[in-house]
Design brief:
- The structure holds two protein chains of two kinds.
- The two termini of chain A are about 20 Å apart.
- Chain A has one domain.
- Helix content of chain A is about 70%, strand content about 0%.
- By secondary structure, chain A is an all-alpha fold.
- Chain A is elongated and about 75 Å long.
- Chain B is an all-alpha fold.
- Helix content of chain B is about 70%, strand content about 0%.
- Chain B has nine helices and no strands.
- The longest helix of chain B has 28 residues.
- The chains are: A mainly alpha, B mainly alpha.
């Protein structure tokens, strides 16, 4: 085929392009993923039973602020990163901010209590459930997000895959936070942060295979 | 360099608004720069410059299919360069070669040279189109090759205008995928 032939074909009857498509598709995928994760939490795990208690009222908002802040920041970064050349203009390191903040807070909490309490604060009551639930709930949102990212034609597949995993992990953690009754900051850092990091790693590993175009 | 960027960007923006002539001029201009870019890169790693034309066409197809991913607030050249470079790396990976050289370049280099000596790629458009599902092939044939308007094509194929648009877009994507597949089987065989 001659290149001129191709150009004349591509340049015939050129359609107007919807410029908001990438942002809209990605935002929709993340929101639908969040709704799916919320449904799993609601119907499979159930909302935490101690909601009326004072401790829940203090710590639940804190967990939600952390997970939602992570979700919002990473989503914005993903929308920037997912397009060709996005890696040139996306300061990906910024998504670490919520993690750094909560790690500092967790460190302060640990320092302010006797070390005999540390075990309970770090291991909590349901670490195993948390460890399994967040990655499992993240699967459906991850699939949706990958589908949407593919339409944006990313050119740095490892980093974009990692960020897609991070967003899916944050979506899952935000939903799971409404079920989980472990409220200590060190617990959140270790088990929420750890599982979100695992999702990120999985995304980075799968990215080159799933996002290739 | 700045004027080329501005000129190409204006053409791109007009094309995004549905200006066929501007889009065609853009692709023609880009094809010359892509050709020079690929020839140099391929030669540098000891590959045949004949592969350049394949890459030029793949990159043009990708630029067309992915044009909705260009953000107006961003400069145009880095966007094109990212696609050009991605296609080069993908090409080298699919044809199993070292890709050590395809990095660390400035986007500006893409505009530095210009090569208008077009040759033919190894792809046969007719045969590739023949691999597409009938409705996509028909839609591309009517709208993109015979130059019928979307309304006329819809009338001829007895489907809605929306269906024609969707089939053209999906068909071009399939075409790009068919090219990528062909490359792999070609090398494996």
């Amino acid at each position: 085929m001659k290149t001129d032939e191709l150009i004349s074909m591509l340049g015939t009857n050129v359609e107007r392009v919807d410029r908001q498509k990438v942002v809209r598709t990605l935002a929709a995928a993340i929101l639908v993923g969040l709704a799916a994760a919320f449904c799993v939490m609601l119907f499979v795990l159930g909302v935490r039973t101690d909601l009326p208690k004072a401790s829940a009222a203090t710590y639940l908002p804190l967990k939600l602020v952390f997970t939602v802040a992570t979700l919002v920041l990473t989503s914005i970064a993903l929308i920037k990163l997912a397009r060709p050349g996005g890696e040139r203009r996306t300061p990906v390191a910024l998504v670490a901010i919520p993690f750094v903040v909560i790690m500092l807070l967790a460190g302060l909490t640990l320092a302010s209590v006797p070390s005999t309490h540390w075990d309970q604060m770090i291991v909590g009551d349901n670490w195993l459930e948390c460890l399994l639930s967040i990655p499992l709930i993240a699967i459906a949102p991850f699939a949706l997000i990958i589908w949407a990212v593919r339409q944006a034609a990313p050119t740095d597949l490892v980093r974009t895959g990692a960020l897609a995993g991070l967003v899916a992990g944050s979506v899952s953690a935000a939903a799971y936070a409404l079920h989980c009754t472990d409220d200590s900051l060190p617990f959140i850092v270790l088990w929420y942060g750890g599982t979100i990091a695992a999702c990120t790693l999985a995304g980075a590993t799968l990215g080159p295979r799933l996002l290739r175009w | 360099m700045a004027t080329i960027e501005a000129e190409l960007r204006d053409l791109m923006v007009a094309g995004l608004d549905g200006d066929s002539a501007a889009h065609r001029t853009l692709l023609a201009q880009l094809s010359r720069r892509l050709r020079a870019y690929y020839k140099v890169r391929l030669e540098r790693i000891g590959r045949s410059p004949a592969e350049a034309e394949d890459l030029v066409q793949e990159a043009l197809l990708a630029i067309h299919i992915q044009r909705h991913t260009y953000t107006l607030s961003e400069p145009f050249t880095p966007w094109v360069y990212a696609i050009a470079r991605y296609k080069l790396i993908d090409h080298l990976r699919r044809t199993r070669a070292q890709m050590t050289d395809a990095s660390l370049e400035e986007a500006g280099e893409l505009l530095a040279e210009d090569d208008h000596i077009a040759s033919e790629s190894a792809y046969d458009l007719r045969r590739l189109l023949g691999q597409l599902p009938a409705k996509m092939r028909q839609a591309i044939q009517c709208v993109k090759i015979d130059g019928l308007s979307v309304a006329e094509a819809a009338n001829r194929c007895r489907v809605s205008e929306a269906a024609i648009k969707v089939n053209v877009h999906r068909g071009l994507k399939r075409l790009a995928a068919a090219i990528a597949r062909e490359k792999e089987t070609h090398e494996d065989g």
